[in-house]
Amino acid sequence: MSSPSMALPSPTCPGCGHPTMSSSDASPEPIGYHPRALFAVSSLGLGHATRSLVVIRWFLHRGYAVTLISAGNALAFLRLELEAEPLVTFQELADYPALERGTGWRFYLYLMLDLLRTWRLIRRERRQLQAVAGGYDSIFSDGRYGFHSRWTPSFILSHQIAFIPPHGLAKTAWISERLNLAALRRFDCLLIPDYPHAGANLTGQLAHVAGLQRCSHHFVGILSSYQRLDLAQDIDYLFVISGYLLEHKGSFVRSLLEQAADLPGNKVFILGAVGDTAASYAAFRRPDLQIHTVASGELRQTLFNRARCIVSRAGYTTIMDLVEHDKRAVLIPTPNQTEQEYLARHLGRLNHFVTREQGDDMDIAAALRDCDRTQRIRPPWRTAESLQRIDNAMAPLLHRQRFRIVLPAMGDTARLPAALEGLLGQRYPSDSFDILVVSDGPDDGIADTVRRYAEERPHGPRLRHRAAGRPREGASDASSVDWILFCDAKLSLGPHLLQQLNTWLNRHGKDVAAASTVAFPATSDGLSAWLGFGVQRLKHRLLPASGRVRLVRADLAGLADCGAGPGKDEPPPIKLFRRHGRLRQVPTDQVSRATPVSLG
Fold this sequence. Notes:
It is a single chain. By secondary structure, this protein is an alpha/beta fold. It has 14 helices and 22 strands. Helix 1 (about 45-60) packs parallel to helix 2 (about 70-80). It is elongated, with a radius of gyration of 29 Å. It has helices at about 45-60, 70-80, 105-130, 175-185, 250-260, 295-305, 315-325, 340-350, 365-370, 385-400, 415-425, 445-455, 495-510, 525-540, and strands at about 35-40, 65-70, 90, 140, 155, 190, 215-220, 235-240, 265-270, 290, 305-310, 330, 355, 405-410, 435-440, 460-465, 485, 490-495, 510-515, 550-555, 580-585, 590-595. A 7-stranded parallel beta sheet has the order 3-2-1-4-5-6-7, covered by helices on one side. A 7-stranded mixed beta sheet has the order 16-15-14-17-20-19-21, with helices on one face. Strands 10-9-8-11-12-13 form a 6-stranded parallel beta sheet, with helices on both faces. The chain folds into 3 domains: about 5-220 and about 385-395, Rossmann fold, CATH 3.40.50; about 235-380, Glycogen Phosphorylase B (Rossmann fold, 3-Layer(aba) Sandwich), CATH 3.40.50.2000; about 400-595, Alpha-Beta Complex (Spore Coat Polysaccharide Biosynthesis Protein SpsA, Chain A).
């Protein structure tokens, strides 16, 4: 992702129709490396899927391979929209239960049971993610709270920070808000699809809450996956009836169909459910009334652009679509869905849309006549600018630090190939790190080994050899990198080490001068080694200056050769860097000893 300073006018993305960063603004990916993004999208309504779609397409245009996790109608919709994309893979994972189901006393019973089940599902998501998080460069969640990782930058898209409690639970609003903020703070950044201005926003009290300052967040603006097409508006009324609370849907759709039959002009219904059958609505079809169970791709875009007026639920994504395209609309919130009820009241009071409650006395013809008296919203910016703001918000956490790995190989030719395999197998852009192998002299066979590996992998990271009396010589010549990583052939490195270091530095690296790491025992080590490891880990956590540096800021690399330990292959004491910045311990599970160790 580009940095905030690269916010330049940009061409149109062929995948989504919205402007994106120009190719000159983004560094080309090195051969053999492809960034990967994980998208976890809620299936509680199609709104999460449709607003995430434009962000997914934008990531694809940037060269990312995308793994998309969702369920139900949302997953089916995204499959239809993205089936032609070769870099997208789909996975189904059960979503949280609908919290607004049931009526009367059953509503409160279901609410308690479903909240408990939701909590359990979030914990399960979290456990399942940790096993695969290292394989992704970023994680993007829309309504799935378990998809955040210690090792990978994690972002969540949400417009609902404050929950509107149902009747009878109004006094618990502050509890739900604080719990939600605590959950959102586990992500690196909260992206809010609304505007920051107190007097010009769409969400009202849902997103503009006092406690938001305790959470890293950015108001990025509205997101709509609809392109603006130059088409005649020959559909007088477009009815878009999606939603996940099916108990309220059947009778509602039939009531609208019956009333639509008496309306003049062309009418089109989109029911928003992939599994729905059109046969049950065949009696309502007429030359001037079309019914689609689902609309995707070009059909979806065309129908929306041709519509003069929209009748829909009061879902927030629908509202963003209406604002993006200056559409007039009648909003009918789903019963018991407090978020939609609040949005309808909020925007109705401002006379931006006509709002009606679902019921037997609902007169859709009168509501449509009132649409001409509403005041359209003039947004400060639209989706194209919102995508740029998402880029700016994510860029600091996706920035690729440049590393130099210094590998001393003092006559240890037997272990060198395994060490080089571990370093060359890093899942990190090859143009963002290089490897410097240091040996005792030019005739120890190590130079030939390094030369052979460099010739076999011409598109890998720069690999070179230097003969020197000390392993740290040559590290100080590091003007082209940001950090020096000291390694040795006795360590086994996992493929995600540089990625984990990069994530930690982007999160916590400000003012850090040097950092230590702890090497896990080898899998073949006995109990004594693991006990010693536990003591060492606790010591380094309490006294970070007691260890030896593995990572040092490049501009301080010259200190690495001062006061080094008694052995040539030992990294320097971390206390040497105390005067130049903070000393930290980097958490990583990618470093272990290649040979058994003992307490001695």
